[in-house]
Amino acid sequence: MKRIYIVILIVILGMGVTMPDLLAQTAIEGTELVEEVPEEKTYWQIIKEGYEGYWGYLKSEVTFNYDYKPWWQNYFYGLILISLFFMLLEWVAPWRKDQAKFREDFWLDTFYMFFNFFLFSLIVYNAASMVMVNLFNDFLGLFGVTNIVAIHVESWPAWAQLLTLFVVRDFIQWNIHRLLHRFDFLWEFHKVHHSVQQMGFAAHLRYHWMENVVYRSLEYIPLAMIGFGLEQFFIVHIFTLAVGHFNHSNINVPLGPLKYVFNNPQMHIWHHAEHLPEERRFGVNFALTLSVWDYLFGTNYIPHEGRDIKLGFPGVEDFPKDFVQQNVHGFRRE
After folding, report:
1. Residue range 163-220, pLDDT digits in tens
2. Domain residues for 94?
3. Residue 263 belongs to a domain
4. N or C, which end of the chain is more exposed by having fewer CB within 10 Å?
């Protein structure tokens, strides 16, 4: 029961943000925490507009029918092109040469990519986010707070803002990733990602929908407190997407000294190892994009080449194999 209460709290907090444009509007544009909703609108109207708005956004991404951004800033086709690029690399120069081109669970992971990147917001998350954002805004209004920007960097050059956003966000996410391994109720959700037993680029976005909620809720306020004055969030988001695909790819690309800066397949494979030493039982190599955090805080672990190590976690053989059962996992007592 305690787990259910904690999950509900995280859901409520997490509905304050959504993928990826609402985060850009609130945390990046920064001068206003959220756009106020006219008083005459009911929350049912907000929900309706949330569904209609996201459906319109998704259609515009697929058809290139938008004029509020350059044509090339397209998340839908960006995801497809980056995925095809790393799939081609895996086929041309695989690290594990005996692994099938369409490896185990390839199509499941492909569905996860589009579900977590787009469909989850369409089904429920975007509309619920709009409601919770406005509730949160109304709550702050009780105390006379209209925005929570504490650090103004909007006057900085665009490159400096982008770099700051990238580094700060990556460090926050590195810490959140550690929490997913440290607390049992969060680990149950994170098991979905670690149920991958044959690694490939598409495994990057195989994760429980609750991870969307956890990451967005915990990174929201720190990012919203920094007054970024830029619209190029796309650059940061698409770069981190590409590095995430790279980390999970079945390729071997020696980075030399850059391995101490950027995450890579030879490092990340150990994060997915089924068996780790007892002193490392809460996980290793938590980097999403920047490996420097692991080297700075002593969570790096590459004892030898991990090309053929067994992946997963103890008992992974009994973990649900289908999408629905995986996404209700974590809410039921075993």
Report:
1. 999 999 999 999 999 999 999 999 999 999 999 999 999 999 999 999 988 888 888 7
2. 69-116+147-328
3. yes
4. C
